[in-house]
Amino acid sequence: MRTYFKKRYNSFKFAFQGLVSAVRSEPHMRLHLLSAVGVAAAGFAFGITKTEWCLVVGCIGLVVTAEVLNTAIETVVNLVSPEFHPLAGRAKDLAAAAVLIAAIAAAIVGLIVFLPYVLSFAELYFGAETTV
Ligand SMILES: Nc1ncnc2c1ncn2[C@@H]1O[C@H](COP(=O)(O)OP(=O)(O)OP(=O)(O)O)[C@@H](O)[C@H]1O
Fold this sequence. Notes:
The chain is mainly α. The protein has one domain (27-126): Helix Hairpins, CATH 1.10.287.3610. The chain is 88% helix and 0% strand. The protein is built from four helices and no strands. Helix 3 (50-80) runs antiparallel to helix 4. Substrate binds at residue 67. One of its GO terms (cellular component) is plasma membrane.
């Protein structure tokens, strides 16, 4: 039983090490996390609903997960094909495309969730004639 918990603990520790390594080595990952902090701050500031939080947190998870998998694929490609190979390039491009798709989807959800709040705020404080 003790071995069971020790193994689960180690799995969690290795996963956390992977996340830390991705944050340290990937500028894009740091950018995603910084954006996530900004979006969370905006969520608290505007008082978004529970459903909107679910969408926002889901999108953050999706983008960060895509970036971690992209980093993992890049790392394996660098290991097995350090020299130029069209398939190595294709694998990296495909992995990068996954991040791009996740980021575009997250940006669209962000606009749908936050734009009405931003416009209401603008109308309230600056008297802008804006409606959505
Ligand atoms: N071994 C390779 N063979 C062929 N093309 C490659 C190879 N390595 C990289 N490339 C091409 O160069 C692009 C950039 O690769 P690189 O490893 O620099 O990743 P990156 O996009 O800069 O990732 P990051 O900035 O997240 O580390 C790849 O998307 C691919 O098109």
